[in-house]
Amino acid sequence: MPKRIVIVGGVAAGMSAATRARRLDEHASITVLEKGGYVSFANCGLPYYLCGRIVGRDKLLVTTPERLRQRFNLDVRVGHEVTRIDRAARVVHGIDLSGGKPFSLPYDKLVIAVGASAIVPDIPNVRAPNVFVLRSMEDTFAIENYLRQHQPRRVAIVGAGFIGLEMVEAMRQIDLDVTVIEKAPQVMPPLDPEMAAPVEKELRAHAVTLLTGTGLAALDAADGKVTHVRTEDGRQIAADMVLLSIGVRPNTKLAVDAGLAIGPAGGIAVDEYQRTSDPDIYAAGDAVEVVHGVTKQKMRIPLAGPANRQGRIAGEHAVTGVSQRAPAVLGTSIVKVFGLSVGMTGLSESAARRAALNAQTAHITGGSHAGYYPGAKPMQIKLVYEQPTGRVLGAQIVGGDGVDKRIDVIATAIHFGGTLDDLASLDLAYAPQFSSARDPVHIAAFAAQNQLRGLTHAISPMEIENELLVDVRTPGECQGGKLPGAINIPLDELRARMGELDRNKRITVYCQAGLRGYIAQRILQQHGFADVRNIKGGYSLAANLPPIRGLSAGPSPADKT
User: Fold this and answer.
1) Chain-wide mean pLDDT for the chain?
2) 246, 35, 208, 13: which is closest to 121 by C-alpha?
3) If pLDDT is split at 50, 70 and 90, which confidence band does 203 have?
């Protein structure tokens, strides 16, 4: 008898499981049961459809049940909700939502790929017709119809994670007034604070109102529609439309009701082959737990890439009994926020410290390609590494072009247990249109190597204490803003003027981005100054942080060194 494979849920994990299973077993009976009306669509493209950058609903459809039947001989049933798993009989039970008719389907192997649902707080008026979430095609079309029929002018977006910020840009693209409400002290909470600061600056530059450090308290309504959003700190925000982007919760009810094990992070527990606590039942996607590639701890990381890979493994193992082991997950991700790209992988500094790792960081500013070739865009790289091993733990990058390839390079290094020496030694492609002979990835690794080897004592701007500050930029740069109390001795004059400095005092030097400060530090140390520190990221980083000892306002020209 052909093996009976039933897959509950489509999209990334479910369809990867189904198509992989078919490619490895032409004779298996493979049925996909999808609760929604669309079995395979481009989740990550939904905001860009709403603002008109992606034109046509058909562009969002990766494939359809008809195409899957023709090409893969899959029995795909949309509008079919599985409500119960009878593990003893190996049967799933559910409802055909088109007519309310119950159905039962036997299986030999079952794959659960039911994903996650948007978190919706239990407060009055949250189900009003102008309050939305964005997870599905149906959600997208509901927002589209509301925009077309009611032409709202003011939208409040609750939550400043990936979906929230993508929707900020989409709504500004169609000229809506946007207010963002984020309970954390900053947008994009996984980022370290200094890396979130330029993102917030970019949002404000595009007329987005940011309310951070306060959450959603209530929704006020009139005539059945929400008119105002009230925040926890008492502010009242007028809104014609509300988008909830608070986060997602794994859909574990089906698994829990079936008696399957739930892991410590709240997702379905699976082994390295995506098997649940029942060896005949697999699970993949946003509902499951993964092993983090650095900490080796179980976590939930709801991203499309891991979901696809997990589904592929589950489908293969279900039909053949063998497959590769599921790889650990680093949470590598990227988001576009107007003119900025924001990428991250592995652990942030704060996450590394929470994991009790002896973490240190390097912070540099580099260019997307050679500075002499037109169009280079700056990018900030924060590299997190372990002392004393030099193992790379994570990275965050904020900039223009080229963020994606740099974050992918670092993610690859982390995947293979790479160190700073490995990262510094990579043979990366170079032509002036694409990079520099010393790529920003190399520069970040070099800076971290110098710190690890004791060649430089680099500090965060937040670590400045009562010390002598020396600004080694040019006088023209200092006119745009500097740290209060700093004396200006340009780097090229330092050797001739070091007699102006007290050798008995701690001296902290800085430039615009860190490189000239490092050179100044090396000069002073080798001329007998015992206690010299350099500010990571220089003034460009310090100016983006909260006031430091009365930090004067004002931009400075970009540092080309």
Assistant:
1) 94
2) 246
3) very high
DSSP letter, residue 50: H
- Indicate the residue type of 254: L
Q: Which helix (H) or strand (E) segment is 522 a member of?
A: helix 515-525
Task: Assess whether 51 carries a catalytic annotation.
Answer: no
Torsion of CA 4, 6, 11, 12, to 10 degrees: -70
Which of 44, 51, 478, 511 is an active site residue? 44
> What mean pLDDT is predicted for residues 107-111?
98
What CA–CA distance (Å, rounded) separates 440 from 381? 8
Q: CA geometry: angle at 82 spanning 257 and 300, to 5°?
A: 60
Query: What's the distance, Cα to Cα, between the start and end of the chain in Å?
Result: 69
Q: Are strands 507-510 and 80-86 parallel, antiparallel or unpaired?
A: unpaired
- What is the SS3 assignment for 503? coil
92 touches 99 (CB < 8 A): no
**What is the arithmetic mean of pLDDT over 544-559?**
46
pLDDT-based confidence at residue 547 (cuts at 50, 70, 90): low
**Could you tell me which of 349, 262, 337 has the C-alpha nearest to residue 298?**
262
Beta strands in 305-404 (DSSP E): 333-337, 340-346, 359-367, 378-386, 392-399
Q: How far apart are CA 55 and CA 147, in angstroms?
A: 16
The region of weakest confidence among 5-9, 270-274, 315-319, 549-553 is 549-553
Cα-based distances in Å from 128 to 140, 217, 223, 224:
16, 16, 10, 6
The packing angle between helices 65-72 and 11-24, to 10°, is 20
| Cβ–Cβ < 8 Å for 66, 40 | no
Q: How many residues does the chain have?
A: 561
263 against 1, higher pLDDT: 263
pLDDT at 554 over 70: no
Q: Is 0.85 surpassed by the pTM of this model?
A: yes
Query: Where would I find the beta strands (DSSP E) of 368-489?
Result: 378-386, 392-399, 458-459, 468-471, 487-488
Q: What radius of gyration do the chain's Cα atoms show? A: 27
Select from 95, 92, 119, 96 the least CA-distant residue to 106: 92
